[in-house]
């Protein structure tokens, strides 16, 4: 029961991280979010590794596996997080979320290629749902826009709040790029912990965060990035700090959940971050998010697909009393 609680808290923390980062980009930029959030993760993993006595395990990690951990940190905390913040700035958390579920497809593809895992009927269903969610949002948005163009609304009175207008092409591009980062990092981290295993999970997280922090500050050597970092104001600093705390606690709760419950229980709970980011977004960014009916429908389609990909086939079959012909379909595997 405690493992399930930590899994839900991890999903909620990640949802809060996205809502806070979305608020931060209203007055700041992606590099500002990185230079604030990364040191928070370094400190948290360092303290936790000390509390749980994992520092002595560092000597057991081979140099090549340290490299994998460093690359995992770069792909998740630099590539993935930078592109995630850019996508939030362009389209908001609600529209970016379903697209970012492509990270599950990337992780699954790498697992089939490198770890000899297989596709099942439930995983194929999950792929269809995840791919259909952003396509449904795009199609519905195009219809809504065409209808609005045909029947233009009267101009708002002076002083009225401007509506949020997503930049779909930019947002979808960076959402997909962030999915590449978030989807490849688990495979790299798994390779980095091949020898030491879960005993080095926290110190491995510290290695990943240190590598990502070094790369982040090296980016400041680029004049345009340094100029953007210097433009940071108090409002964006506040929200990026809250975002950094949120994502750090998300990783903490995830590690605690994995230590108490099976991956087949924890991973589906992580998919709940789609719902939490919508809930937190409603309270924090109500005027800066898309809450159209088709967007919410797309979020639930993506959530259903994430569950179908994450849950083990055995656990689904135990819950469902399927007829014989459906049981034969679910038994299909490839390769």
In words, what does this structure look like?
Helix 1 packs parallel to helix 10, helix 2 crosses helix 3 and helix 3 packs across helix 11. The protein has 14 helices and 2 strands, in the order ααααβααααααααααβ. The chain has one domain. The longest helix has 38 residues. About 2% of the residues have low confidence. It is mainly α and 335 residues long. 76% of the residues lie in helices and 1% in strands. The radius of gyration is 21 Å and the shape is globular. The chain has a two-stranded antiparallel sheet. The two termini are 35 Å apart.
Number of helices: 14
Which stretches are low in confidence, meaning pLDDT under 50 for 5 or more residues running?
A: 156-161
Estimated radius of gyration: 21 Å
Mean pLDDT: 81
- Structural class of the helix and strand makeup? mainly alpha
Number of domain modules: 1
Topology:
Blueprint: H1 2-24, H2 30-51, H3 63-100, H4 102-114, E1 119-120, H5 121-150, H6 168-192, H7 201-218, H8 223-230, H9 234-260, H10 263-270, H11 273-284, H12 293-310, H13 313-319, H14 324-330, E2 333-334
Antiparallel strand pairs: 1-2
Helix pairs in contact: 1-3, 1-9, 1-10, 1-11, 2-3, 2-7, 2-9, 3-6, 3-7, 3-11, 3-12, 4-6, 5-12, 10-12
Task: Quickly list its features.
single chain; 335 residues; mainly alpha; two-stranded antiparallel ribbon
